[in-house]
Structures are given as structure tokens and as C-alpha cells.
């Protein structure tokens, strides 16, 4: 049996007195909306020809806003969120993140913008299987050159209730535990924009409530913008605004 460190400090990683928010070289403007989406369309080839998953979607999210995206299964929510993060490319339309047209950037440019501004929680967690829980959470900090990656990662795992699972590999974690590691990984760099796909989908009510509280706490502490895909009416109700997507269109 591996031994687990129990003495994880019960503190929030220090928020830097002056962070780099809005100062990334790829950034256009401090006054821009957090997200501006225009005419966003996604078509894919399928057996019967072409399938349109998103039909010319338009919306804007202001900085520090909390937005819920709701809709039936298969309506296009995950596709939309992936496009907002530049993880997928649209067939048509634009996504501006803090004023920067992300599809005008090359892949490296999008990667550096994501690193500077964005936390993403995937519906399927997407933890790296060969890294432990704490190593998964350390990764974005290390990529950003943070010298305090380990204590910050341990502290964030503490906030999602996983201090006793630091050295577990993902395959030895339950679904809800993996989800909490994924949330810790997305939060740990305190990104100005957090995109989360069903962040409480695998959690029991009490843990889900704790994770929701944490997300809104970070939103308040850091003025971060939150965009959540959810089926949970209680979570949607806590967001400042809800948009509904049906068969790839905003309703
Ligand atoms: N690469 C692809 N090729 C073909 N069809 C796709 C592709 N990606 C997504 N789809 C289809 O597009 C639709 C929207 O998928 P998406 O994952 O965005 O739905 P969702 O709203 O997130 O659903 P859920 O609530 O079940 O997670 C689905 O019908 C899906 O099968
Ligand atoms: Mg989905």
C-alpha cells in the first residue's frame, strides 16, 4: 500500500497580489467581454451526409458573469463548450475570448491563450492516467512555470476533499473523485475564465453542493467568469443567467 500524506495544509493557495489577468500578449483589450460568440456553426460529416450540430449561435458573456448552459442530451452543449475553449474548430463563426479572435490564432497561439486564461473541466474528466492525482493538478502550474506547484496542488485537492488521495492514480479513484481532481486541476491556476461541462454530474448531493460552493466562491474571490453546462436546475438557478440550447440552436 502506498502511504498518503495526511498533513495537507488546509489553506487556500495565496492569490497573487497582482495576477497576470488580462496582460497576456494575445489579449486585445481589458474592457472586452469575457466571451463573445457570433454565428458559431459546427457541421460534421456523418453517414447520411452532413450533420449540423450548432446552428449560428450568438451570445456574449461579461467578465465575472456566471452563465449556465442547459439543454437536452445531444443538443450540442459539449460541442459549444469545446469551441469556446478552442479545443475544436468551427465550420463558421467566431469566438472572441477577452477580445481575442481565437480561431485567427494558430494552434500554439490558442494553447498559450488557454494556458493564460482558461480552466476547462471535461465531461469525461480527461485526467492523465500515468500521473497521480496531485501530479495531474500540478501540471498546469508547472506548464505556467510556477515554482510552488506541489503545495498549491495539494491545497486545492484539500479544498475538494481529496487530501487523502494525493498519490492515487486516476484508475484507482471513483468517478466522483476523478471529477474532483479534474475540478482542482481547472481551478488551481485561478483562471479568469472557467468552463465546466457537467461539473457535478458524477457527484453525490453533498459533494456536488461543496463543489458548487467552491466554484462560486472562486468566482467571487477572483472575479472569474464561470460558464457551466448542467442538467441540475439548482446549479443553473445559482448562475446569474441561463441559456438553453435545443437541437443546436439557442432558444
Ligand atoms: N464529431 C462528431 N461527429 C458526429 N456527430 C457528433 C460529433 N460530435 C458530436 N456529435 C453529435 O452532436 C450532437 C451534440 O453532441 P454534444 O456532445 O455536444 O451534446 P450534449 O448537449 O453535450 O449532450 P449530453 O448532455 O449528453 O452531454 C450529438 O447528437 C452528437 O452525437
Ligand atoms: Mg455533453
UniProtKB/TrEMBL annotation:
An example of a GO molecular function for this protein is: ATP hydrolysis activity
Region entry Disordered: which residue ranges? 1-28
One cellular component term from this protein's GO annotations in UniProt: plasma membrane
Which PROSITE patterns does the record associate with it? Answer: ABC_TRANSPORTER_1, ABC_TRANSPORTER_2
A Pfam family per the record? ABC_tran
- Note the SUPFAM superfamilies from the entry: P-loop containing nucleoside triphosphate hydrolases (SSF52540)
Q: Enumerate the spans annotated as ABC transporter domain.
A: 35-250
Q: What's one GO BP annotation on this UniProt entry?
A: response to antibiotic
State if Transmembrane is listed as a keyword. yes
Q: Which family does it belong to?
A: Belongs to the ABC transporter superfamily. Macrolide exporter (TC 3.A.1.122) family.
Name of this protein: ABC transporter ATP-binding protein
Q: Which organism is it from?
A: Pseudoduganella umbonata
Amino acid at each position: 500500500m502506498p502511504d498518503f500524506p495526511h498533513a495537507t495544509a488546509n489553506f487556500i493557495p495565496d492569490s497573487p497580489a497582482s495576477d497576470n489577468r488580462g496582460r497576456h500578449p494575445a489579449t486585445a483589450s481589458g474592457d472586452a467581454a469575457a466571451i463573445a460568440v457570433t454565428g458559431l456553426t459546427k457541421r460534421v460529416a456523418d453517414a447520411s451526409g452532413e450533420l449540423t450540430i450548432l446552428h449560428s449561435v450568438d451570445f456574449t458573456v461579461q467578465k465575472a458573469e456566471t452563465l449556465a448552459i442547459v439543454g437536452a442530451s445531444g443538443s450540442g452543449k459539449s460541442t459549444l463548450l469545446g469551441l469556446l475553449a478552442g479545443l475544436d474548430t468551427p465550420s463558421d463563426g467566431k469566438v472572441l475570448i477577452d477580445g481575442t479572435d481565437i480561431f485567427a490564432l494558430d494552434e500554439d497561439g490558442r494553447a498559450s491563450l488557454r494556458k493564460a486564461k482558461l480552466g476547462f473541466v471535461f465531461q469525461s474528466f480527461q485526467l492523465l492516467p500515468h500521473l497521480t492525482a496531485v501530479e495531474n493538478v500540478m501540471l498546469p502550474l508547472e506548464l505556467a512555470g510556477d515554482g510552488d506547484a506541489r503545495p498549491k496542488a495539494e491545497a486545492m485537492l484539500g479544498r475538494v476533499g481529496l487530501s487523502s488521495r494525493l498519490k492515487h492514480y486516476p484508475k484507482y479513484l471513483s468517478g466522483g473523485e476523478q471529477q474532483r481532481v479534474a475540478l482542482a486541476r481547472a481551478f488551481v491556476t485561478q483562471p479568469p475564465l472557467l468552463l465546466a461541462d457537467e461539473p457535478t454530474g458524477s457527484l453525490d448531493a453533498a459533494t456536488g453542493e461543496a463543489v458548487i460552493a467552491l466554484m462560486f466562491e472562486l468566482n467571487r474571490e477572483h472575479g472569474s467568469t464561470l460558464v457551466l453546462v448542467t442538467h441540475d436546475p439548482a446549479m443553473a438557478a445559482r448562475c446569474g443567467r441561463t441559456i438553453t440550447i435545443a437541437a443546436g440552436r439557442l432558444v
